[in-house]
Amino acid sequence: MKVNRRHLIQACAAALLPAAGTSRAQAALETVKIITGFPPGGTSDTICRRVAAKLAPGYGRSVVVENRTGAGGQIAIQGVRTLPPDGATILQTPMSMLGVYPHIYRKLAYDPVADLSPVTLGCTFDFGFAVGPAVPASVRNVADFLAWCKANPAQANFGSPAAGSVPHFIGVLLGRSANVDLKHVPYRGTQPAILEMIGGQIQAVSGPIGEFTQHVAAGKCRLLAATGAARSRFAPDTPTLVEQGLRDMAFSEWFGFFLPGKAPADVVQRANTALRAALADKETVDGLALMGLEAKSSTPAELAAMLKADTDRWGPIVKSIGFTAES
After folding, report:
1. How large is the average pLDDT for residues 258-284?
2. Which fold has domain 5-124+253-321?
């Protein structure tokens, strides 16, 4: 996917506008919706609700969260792309739906660049790789696990929150690094996978690092690795994959906020100013940290550049794995 030049110019123009904007940008909107493609109670929904609480009444007199679930987050994006770009509807989505999905679906019902206007980054997070009681206690790191899988091929498997997700691909790449066929078991979310791992139904799980912390603290599973470029503050005693010799395997992901495509620059700027203030609020920062998420914001241009970099990075990886949504 190529970067849309108009899209980047628009994002840069928004970043240069005064925070106060025009009279249109100054007026508080009557009702603002933050739309997520994931169900209530999950990570994406929780982020939206924490941010929504900080947007009223300055940005919108009423700010509500709407969960448009289905098709792995695609339904929400499809719905937002057709709405007026007036700032009253904000999409919040993980990177995967925009940077990875174009490589695994032969035909998407939306264009991640043309149909959306980037506003700001929301947060970043690393992934973790953990094992449960079905794996011997002597397995303490990734090399141990892969060696054990090689000796026990019938038990060489791992779960992830979804087929075609970044955690899915991390598990595949781990297996390939040692020429081990790790069988993938997809779930609808990370917690269902972790619960089966704790129960001994599967051996390992790849997923967002914040999903593991409570179970690790309770001694129910062991976190073998984190995937960031540096150790996660949420699991400071867990070495990264890079530290364990897998130099090309530094992976993280982000949630971002977007408006419908072709949003005017002043509308984008006003949304950016309001969202960045909400994300910097201590209650928001502390609340996201409870889920292993680092609250972070950006300019629209920075978010557009991040999306391009991730899209470019994941294309060759997905191609090398050979996965498609139909496979």
Report:
1. 97
2. D-Maltodextrin-Binding Protein; domain 2 (3.40.190)
